[in-house]
Design brief:
The chain is of the alpha/beta class and about 475 residues long. The chain is built from 16 helices and 16 strands. The protein is elongated and about 105 Å long.
């Protein structure tokens, strides 16, 4: 080892075959790095050296590298475990590694206080090798995270859509389900679709790295990994994610506040227009203008309502209060409220109620929002002079409601994302939309215990179908 060091490097790096040799080293506290050959029988002595020189980077070189040795070294404050005999390329990498100077100047990695902001963040580790999961668990111990560990990826897949996580650490090569497949499943979930994913793998080829980034991986960590580097990468990623969520929450709060302030004036405008229309002192053309204004105001009212509802849903304050209500009455009421919008586009509303169940359990106001959103979408995207069909039937277990219209529709490649937040096809459909209507409809229907699905054949028809359980 000493032969591999230049005279200049030897001034900053100390190598000894036995930790007792350090007694004769001058200015040890000012050295850049100390590498000690060990068989781990003298680990307690090395631990004392780490404590005595907290700013000194200490590595150990041993003939046998095992999980136990790595974990023991990490717990003693040793920064890295390398193979003995030490190879020349390791030394060359070391001499070119500017991170060592940074770590020497900022020895915060073992200071638990600096990780208080990460405490209790939820991280899932999935790796079929217990050696790797234990090593990652020990590496992340100073962060005081809430770790969920799986060695069977199929078991992990069962909870990815029911529990919100702040980070996923995934191995790639696993039996039954690969890390790539699990990542794709995570991206399709409702609660973790935006959660960062990091792949930790022994695969070092560029093809796998590129594939991981295509799947949205924030970092690609190669095994065996450097404990200090992985600590820094993960802590930085978690902090960055927390900051993004904080900013998003502030933006949502501001949007909700402004929207809420708009609610009163819009309602006042609708009431005023209704009051004027009840008077009999307007000619036909004037009334048509007032009806157009009323239709526009109601559309604006629906947009405002959707944004407020979105904020409530995201913050867990969506409350469903089921009572016995007439679905037939609700369908009729919704159609009456949009009939002026329909006449403006020369559309006909065709309503049919084909079930014997008159009253069922549902939240009247929330379900009204669902039907309103579906009908307004159907009116916006229908061909002029066509029909919009609204029908209800049952299969003995569920009430099934259909809303169908004729129009350009949505191509198949986009249909899987139709219920996502802020997904809108306003540009292609040449309309104004915030992309929340269908997302909110799905949230409300799901909260009722029902399902909703989308079907569209471009240039022919679009149909949205939702179910409500008969309780």
């Amino acid at each position: 080892m000493k032969k591999l060091l230049s005279d200049e490097a030897a001034k900053e790096i100390v190598y000894v075959n036995d930790c007792r040799e350090l007694k004769g080293v001058q200015g040890l506290a000012n050295k850049r790095l100390c590498i000690i050959k060990t068989n781990f029988k003298d680990i307690n002595k090395i631990k004392k050296i780490c404590k005595s020189y907290p700013n000194l980077e200490v590595w150990v070189a041993c003939e046998e590298i095992s999980r136990k040795n790595i974990i023991t070294a990490n717990m003693c404050g040793i920064k890295n475990v390398i193979q003995y005999p030490v190879k020349e390329e390791v030394i060359n990498d070391l001499l070119n590694n500017t991170d060592l100077t940074r770590i020497k100047e900022k020895s915060y990695l073992n200071n638990k206080y600096n990780f208080e902001d990460l405490k209790n963040l939820k991280v899932m580790i999935v790796d079929d090798n217990p050696f790797n999961t234990e090593l990652l668990e020990e590496t992340l111990k100073p962060f005081d995270l809430n770790l969920t560990i799986f060695q069977k990826p199929k078991e992990a897949a069962k909870i990815i859509d029911s529990e919100k996580f702040d980070l996923f650490l995934l191995d790639i090569m696993m039996p039954e389900l690969s890390g790539y497949e699990l990542a794709e499943m995570i991206k399709k979930t409702r609660v973790n679709s935006t959660t960062p994913i990091v792949f930790v793998s022994a695969l070092s080829d560029n093809e796998n790295k590129l594939k991981s980034f295509e799947l949205g991986s924030y970092i690609y960590i190669e095994k065996p990994f450097n404990i200090n580097i992985i600590k820094t990468q993960i802590s930085s990623l978690l902090r960055e994610q927390k900051e993004k969520e904080k900013i998003a929450h502030l933006q949502d709060s501001y949007l909700a506040m402004v929207t809420h302030d708009m609610k009163g004036p819009v309602q006042a405008e609708i009431s005023a227009l209704k009051f004027l229309l009840d008077k009999d002192n307007f000619d036909k053309e004037q009334k048509e203008i007032l009806y157009d204004m009323l239709s526009t105001s109601k559309y604006l009212q629906n947009l405002v309502s959707n944004i407020i509802q979105k904020f409530k849903t995201d913050n867990g304050s969506l409350v469903i209060t089921k009572q016995s209500n007439s679905l037939k009455k609700l369908l009729t009421e919704c159609c009456d409220e949009i009939k002026y919008m329909a006449s403006e586009r020369s559309l006909t509303l065709d309503v049919s109620y084909k079930t014997e169940y008159e009253n069922i359990l549902f939240d009247y106001e929330q379900l009204k929002r669902v039907i309103h959103n579906l009908l307004i979408n159907a009116l916006k995207y229908s061909y002029k002079n066509s029909k919009v069909y609204i029908s209800a039937e049952d299969d003995g277990k569920n009430i099934i409601v259909y809303v169908k219209n004729s129009g350009d529709g949505i191509s198949k490649e986009y249909q899987d994302n139709i219920f996502d937040k802020f997904i809108t096809f306003s540009e292609t459909q040449k309309s104004i939309s915030c992309g929340l209507g269908l997302h909110i409809a799905k949230e409300i229907v799901t909260a009722h215990g029902g399902t909703i699905k989308f079907e569209s054949i471009p240039k022919e028809y679009t149909q949205l179908t939702f179910t409500l359980p008969l309780e």
